Amino acid sequence: MVKKYLSVFIITVKEYFVYRLNFVLWRFRVILNILIPLFLWSAVFDKNTFIGSYDKIQFISYLLFGNLIATFVFGTRTFDISSDINDGKIINALLKPVSFFNYHFAREIADKALNLFFAIFEILFLIWLFKLNFIYPRNLLLFLPIFVNSVLISYFINLSLAFIGFWTTEVWPIRFIFIILLSFVAGNYFPLDILPPTIYKLILFTPFPYMFYLPAKILISHSTTSNVANAMKQWNNEAMILIFLSYFWLLASYFLARLVWQKGIKSFSFWGR
């Protein structure tokens, strides 16, 4: 059983190296996505010692760890599902002697693992090239389950978006809006707690911070800087609430994906094959 999905994993990885120029340009774009916020915030810190409760080293660490998390959490192959629904190819997948969801999850993990593998080397190269100071990751035992949560929340939400293909062929505009929204309210470009308190609290009631901000924040928690130490006390009080909300959104996103799938498969019809 495991052998089948391991084969799917290996084949998916090999697919990325068929068009080598596309692959190189893709990795170049990833590096640019790291450099732009890095240079932007470094320029801001030239005139400010702190932004919110963050000094420069903490902020840079957040961006570096966050980019590693983002490559694993945000990368997805679920867009293939909506294409298969629109083309009617999903029928072939459902008739195969493999689990539809396990098959696509194996492809998803392959995409994320490849992203993470190259992102580690790219970030290490940037640290060496620009002589960046950063905090070594902390709280790994707490980070790991929250990181798994963030991956699964992202996967289930992307599945739900892919299943919209049961009702419309215009899935990409919806996904594009989701990606743009996610980039700003998940804490991809900056820690969310530097926002005004009201906006920050409102965003915490959405699933987005638990995909990026929370795991990245956990990795840089605890500092000896006095100003930050006070902020960390408040953070520790919030942490348990945020962890609880992370598990809530994990369950909510799972049941949403399951509900959309069940509704969609019942209404699905296709002609011409």
TrEMBL record:
Signal sequence region: none
InterPro entries xrefs: ABC-2_transporter-like
Any Pfam family matching the protein: ABC2_membrane_6
Residues annotated as transmembrane: 24-45, 57-75, 113-130, 142-166, 172-190, 202-220, 240-261
Keyword annotations from UniProtKB, A to Z: Membrane, Transmembrane, Transmembrane helix
Listed PANTHER family: SLR1174 PROTEIN, SLR1174 PROTEIN-RELATED
Protein name according to UniProt: ABC-2 type transporter domain-containing protein
